[in-house]
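Practice problem 4.
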């Protein structure tokens, strides 16, 4: 089988979507080296990384780099050509992973990874340009894709609600997994936490942006302190995203600026240390396609308080405390309960490790390869609808 696989988001600045593509292709190459893999560092024109590696970073006997475009304009020209499939060597599979979707797949089976449509749930969570670009790609997938890979049951159900014309038999859930292969790594303390003892802080991981809900989290933390909670700091580990320019003023108005440590971007080593050493991992996101920070924290034994929203309960099972992400009072009292009950905290840590072990990349990659086989054995979608 000849597989054309989009790796456009797997560069040095990769986030959730990029980690999914990176880990999935590595696992496929490892368990099925007999296939031919054309890895596509430039895929469409919605997402473009000019700093993608010049040389193929993935090793394997049958692994090659596809066309790497140096500008968004040349990428756009290539991917809108009628003979783009031919220029790629007519792969059996073309797999999109960055929201953009081709529309000219005539013989290749087009597989499209669907993450989420948070931009439809609340347009204020993102910018207009990102919202329009993401929706255009998802909409085109509903017309052109032969199969959809959804990263959770919640995402699958949302896709079918928005696009009821798409055949539900052709959308498959294949879960992401942690990008950290070794759960025994100790990690490295971030400089921002010098002097803060292990298990002496509460943690939130994620870009500071409206959808991640840090405003309500910090309001709940302020209430927790007012209720007499232990004054352990709240650590926000993540860069600043969009629409949060006044967040520092928000902390000052709550009177908790001195209790909140904002690390900015952290390395993987630092993130592992934070997960392993936090008293609890707090993740009140309003909407998730999956919720990788929850799974990764659980992998390292982080006791978890998280959201009842969207896909996250699929990740946690019964191994976390689930709360309405808008219930500030409920979050404050849950923090207070956990910080005064060491036994419950330690039980959650043990349950978290056990639950996280259910998610494994080789299992997910095997499921994806099976889907490819099914796609090749089935007619292209446009011939049967």
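Answer key:
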């Amino acid at each position: 089988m000849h597989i054309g696989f989009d790796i456009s988001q797997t560069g040095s600045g990769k986030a959730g979507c990029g980690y999914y593509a990176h880990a999935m292709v590595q696992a496929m190459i490892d368990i099925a080296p007999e296939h031919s893999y054309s890895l596509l560092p430039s895929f469409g024109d919605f997402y473009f990384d000019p700093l993608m590696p010049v040389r193929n970073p993935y090793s394997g006997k049958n692994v090659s780099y596809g066309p790497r475009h140096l500008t968004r304009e040349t990428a756009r020209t290539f991917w809108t050509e009628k003979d783009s499939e031919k220029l790629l060597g007519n792969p059996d599979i073309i797999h999109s992973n960055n929201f953009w979707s081709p529309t000219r797949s005539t013989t290749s089976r087009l597989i499209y990874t669907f993450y989420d449509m948070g931009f439809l749930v609340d347009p204020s969570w993102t910018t207009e340009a990102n919202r329009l670009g993401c929706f255009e790609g998802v909409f085109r997938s509903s017309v052109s894709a032969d199969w959809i890979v959804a990263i959770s049951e919640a995402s699958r159900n949302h896709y079918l609600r928005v696009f009821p014309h798409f055949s539900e038999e052709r959308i498959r859930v294949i879960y992401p997994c942690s990008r950290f292969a070794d759960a025994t790594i100790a990690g490295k303390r971030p400089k921002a936490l010098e002097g803060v003892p292990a298990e002496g802080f509460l943690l939130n991981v994620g870009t500071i942006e409206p959808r991640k809900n840090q405003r309500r989290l910090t309001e709940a933390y302020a209430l927790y302190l007012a209720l007499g909670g232990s004054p352990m700091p709240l650590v926000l580990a993540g860069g600043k995203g969009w629409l949060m320019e006044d967040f520092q003023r928000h902390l000052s108005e709550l009177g908790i600026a001195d209790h909140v440590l904002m690390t900015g971007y952290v390395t993987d080593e630092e993130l592992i240390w934070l997960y392993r050493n936090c008293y609890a991992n707090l993740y009140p996101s309003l909407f998730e396609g999956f919720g990788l920070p929850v799974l990764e924290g659980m992998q390292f034994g982080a006791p978890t308080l998280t959201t009842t929203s969207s896909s996250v309960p699929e990740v946690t099972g019964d191994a976390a405390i689930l709360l309405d992400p808008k219930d500030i009072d409920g979050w404050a009292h849950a923090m207070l309960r956990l910080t005064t009950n060491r036994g419950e905290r330690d039980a959650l840590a043990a349950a978290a490790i056990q639950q996280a072990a259910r998610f494994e990349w080789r299992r997910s990659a095997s499921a994806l390869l099976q889907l490819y086989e099914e796609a090749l054995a089935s007619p292209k979608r446009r011939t049967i609808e």
